[in-house]
Structure formats: C-alpha cells, structure tokens
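Report of the visiting student (M.T.), summer placement. My assignment was to run the structure pipeline on a short list of targets and document each run. The first record concerns HGF factor.
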Amino acid sequence: EGKGRRRNALHDFKKTGELVLIKVNKTLEVKTKLLNTTEQCAKRCSRNKGLSFTCKAFAYDRVTKRCHWLSFNSLTNGVRKKQDHAFDLYEKKDYVRNCIIGKGADYKGTISVTKSGIQCQAWNSMIPHEH
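After the run finished, the structure tokens were exported:
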C-alpha cells in the first residue's frame, strides 16, 4: 500500500445488493445510525466501535443513509432474508467464507468436517486429541 493511502474497509465484506436480513430470534442484536457512506459503516463494523456485540454484517439503507449493524449474518439460525430495493447487505467474509486460508487460525466459518468427511473435534473437548 502506498504512503497516505488507506485500505478500504469494504474489502473485508461480501456485498449482496437489494437484500436485508430480518431477525426472527429476538436475542439477536442490531444497532442503527445515520452515516453517509458504506465505508463508514464498514469501518465501525470492523472495529466494533460503539457496539455491544461482535459485528458480523451490516445493511445499508441507501434511501435514508442509515447503517444497521448486525450481530448475525445470513448463515445464522433465526434469521430470514428479505428482498428490499433500498438496502445492500454487507457480510464479513470471515463469517461467510467456506474455505480455510493458511493454517485457519482466524477461521470463523461454519465448516465442521474434514476433507474426508470426518466430524471435527469440538474445541472444548480433549478427546480424541489434546490441544
């Protein structure tokens, strides 16, 4: 990266146009605020700034210029997808990616079986292997 150039926070997100997520599970959290750009929304989500939860996605209302930060994404149980022409959905790639990059130390996806189809050992289990 060149001197004085900042990395665009949107690079960490997968965009789906004209889609919004509706929480069916009432325990899932959402916070909203007026912001002018999707990049501002992305920065806040990436840093979890001013949020009481880990931001996994945000929806940006292009009409009202309102950002909706979400504690969930499209893969979360208790969430429904809804077509809406006013919104664009941005999901953190780390949470929707189905592949492991490198050793997988930062992997946050949903894959729980090995390449050969064997169920992965739970993190809280010491059987069959110790950590």
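Residues 38-47 form the longest helix (10 residues). The chain has a mean pLDDT of 88. I thank the supervising group for their guidance throughout the placement.
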